[in-house]
């Protein structure tokens, strides 16, 4: 089976992740949507690496992995900081900040 | 080339759990489904000739990142309910159509793209990856090191709470407690001085009077306590012996 099918699968996963970010109000679930989008990009990179017969795509996927890990750490810390201040992790609540 | 059966299995165990991101109510269920998605993606990496990346995916994502998510879920409370009221009118449908349109767009574009596929794929074994990382991309690795340190420090700074008052020592706590008129020693344990070694009986003071506040408040609320009177009667009447009961 051609590796381009994995790129199609990655597109579907990316769309699902985007929908989760747009639709869900729970900050943690929306954040998991972001993670899913990053992973979909990773899958596309690895599939392209297989199609080109080069290893650079896998290296790029590795870098995305590291950046995603750093992003998770900071993002979850922000969620905890907001929860401490407002006792909620709903994404709509901080909109009240604009008064 | 990838086995079609393997591809469809991977597609099933990634797309179906991923849909729980949209439909599951509880965040814990979503987190567990995303773990399954990550395992499916790791399988896909191994199938596409990236075994090292597949292992890293399992270790980093299912092992570290998703467990971190679960920790934070426990910290903020699992039963955080999601507000269903929409702040922006029609946000649900706008978001759904945008995401569906994005997916349809991507799938249609990728589906009609014809790309040549190399007959022999390269196997991303750890030694191959290591040589590539530390020769061609060594600068990127160093920058990533900076990024990781910054992220760790950032997380520490964001979750740090400054101490507003000086720490109270044990001596000060005890002194305040005595000043407030509280009992300076522990409360008596229930049933200790009675001839009955159980939690539902009040302790007896040296004069044989039951000490009411020695019983747990919970047992009192549940009406599961025993009056201390009968044990006091036993104390006064020597004809009652322990073996009678």
UniProtKB/TrEMBL annotation, chain A:
Cellular component GO terms held in the UniProt record: NADH dehydrogenase complex; plasma membrane
GO biological process: ATP synthesis coupled electron transport
Keyword tags: Cell membrane, Membrane, NAD, Quinone, Translocase, Transmembrane, Transmembrane helix, Transport
Subcellular location: Cell membrane; Membrane
E.C. number(s) listed in UniProt: 7.1.1.-
Residue intervals passing through the bilayer: 6-23, 28-48, 60-83
Database matches in InterPro entries: NADH_UbQ_OxRdtase_chain4L/K, NUOK/Mnh_C1-like
UniProt entry tagged with the keyword Transmembrane: yes
GO molecular function: NADH dehydrogenase (quinone) (non-electrogenic) activity; quinone binding
Cross-referenced Gene3D superfamilies: 1.10.287.3510
Keyword Cell membrane on entry: yes
Annotated membrane topology: Multi-pass membrane protein
Catalytic activity: a quinone + NADH + 5 H(+)(in) = a quinol + NAD(+) + 4 H(+)(out)
Major localisation: membrane
Subunit structure: NDH-1 is composed of 14 different subunits. Subunits NuoA, H, J, K, L, M, N constitute the membrane sector of the complex.
Family: Belongs to the complex I subunit 4L family.
PANTHER family: NADH DEHYDROGENASE SUBUNIT 4L-RELATED, NADH-UBIQUINONE OXIDOREDUCTASE SUBUNIT ND4L
Biological role stated in the UniProt entry: NDH-1 shuttles electrons from NADH, via FMN and iron-sulfur (Fe-S) centers, to quinones in the respiratory chain. The immediate electron acceptor for the enzyme in this species is believed to be a menaquinone. Couples the redox reaction to proton translocation (for every two electrons transferred, four hydrogen ions are translocated across the cytoplasmic membrane), and thus conserves the redox energy in a proton gradient.
HAMAP family xref list: NDH1_NuoK
The protein, known as: NADH-quinone oxidoreductase subunit K
Organism: Demequina mangrovi
